[in-house]
Input
Amino acid sequence: MKVSKEILANVAGLSRLAIAEEETTRYQEDLTKFLAYVETLNEVATENTPPTTYALPMENVFREDDVRPSLDREAALLNAPLKEDGYFKVPKVLED
Output
């Protein structure tokens, strides 16, 4: 498919691209080559190929949710910059 100046202008407008007049010939050729390549993909036999959502096989990368002992409160608060009554103390975020 040969890309005309009108088609290129339409695609550029839809893409919100400004193409200088001296670059239109180059972009027409590039877009024509691209469309020719995409057309060759239609020749690939895909009748027996199941549709896929992902190119790579999916696998769960999360660890098992095992119950384990939690961190001791004193150890958690050991390096806290501010603490009060056994809890982290943070600056007030909400206004009154």
Q: What stands out?
A: The domain at 5-41 is CATH 1.10.20 (Histone, subunit A). The chain has a mean pLDDT of 89.
